[in-house]
């Protein structure tokens, strides 16, 4: 069993360029990715019971009536918190390590974009609860957006008729940002794969 397992491990390491798989410096990005994947999966489960026309009551229904709903809901919430904290730690680590310098400046830009998308998705996701804190957060968010010239047109696109208790637009906006984050998440992997392919061609 051990030789076959090592063969599979070597296969993945060769294809993905994971020569430093057991290096602690590479764990932060993997932890962020793991938290992101869990948040997406748990969010999809919550979506099965969520009603955008009654955000607060459907959230209460999930917590109180759905089997293990409270576990999924709060693990989704704290998974998002963990993802944000780990993303900040990862960005600070890369900044102080000089990972933004040539030739990795493109990966740094992608990372910054992913951080912005993560924060936006988390903000919109929390707004789906519809409680007093979420409503106040949306008011603050709308104020920040409207304070920037030319961005006020995005308020109805992002929030829709939020004050009336309909969160369908917020739900769609959160999904769109999450999908963009997922697509952006694959860019470093594609970069690594292309780099590995070029290196293997040079070796041949």
From TrEMBL:
A single MF term (Gene Ontology): oxidoreductase activity
Pfam families with a match to the protein in the record: Cytochrom_B_N_2
InterPro entries, per the entry: Cyt_b/b6_N, Cytb/b6-like_sf, Di-haem_cyt_TM
A single GO cellular-component term on record: membrane
Name of the featured protein: Cytochrome bx
Biological process (GO), any one: respiratory electron transport chain
UniProtKB keywords: Membrane, Transmembrane, Transmembrane helix
Organism: Sulfolobus acidocaldarius
KW Transmembrane (keyword) present: yes
Membrane-spanning segments: 26-50, 71-91, 106-128
Domain Cytochrome b/b6 N-terminal region profile: 8-204
């Amino acid at each position: 069993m051990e030789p076959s397992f090592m063969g599979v491990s070597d296969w993945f390491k060769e294809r993905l360029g994971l020569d430093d798989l057991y290096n602690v410096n590479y764990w932060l990005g993997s932890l962020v990715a793991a938290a992101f994947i869990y948040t997406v999966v748990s969010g999809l489960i919550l979506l099965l019971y969520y009603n955008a026309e009654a955000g607060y009551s459907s959230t209460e229904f999930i917590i109180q009536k759905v089997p293990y709903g409270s576990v999924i809901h709060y693990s989704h919430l704290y998974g998002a918190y963990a993802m944000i904290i780990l993303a900040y730690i990862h960005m600070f680590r890369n900044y102080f390590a000089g990972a933004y310098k040539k030739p990795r400046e493109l990966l740094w830009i992608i990372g910054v974009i992913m951080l912005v998308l993560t924060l936006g998705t988390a903000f919109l996701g929390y707004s789906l609860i519809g409680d007093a804190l979420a409503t106040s957060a949306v008011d603050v968010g709308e104020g920040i957006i409207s304070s920037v010239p030319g961005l006020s047109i995005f308020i109805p696109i992002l929030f829709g008729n939020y004050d009336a208790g309909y969160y369908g637009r917020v739900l769609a906006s959160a999904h769109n940002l999450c999908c963009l984050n997922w697509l952006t998440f694959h860019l470093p992997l594609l970069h690594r794969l292309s780099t590995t392919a070029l290196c293997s061609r040079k070796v041949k």
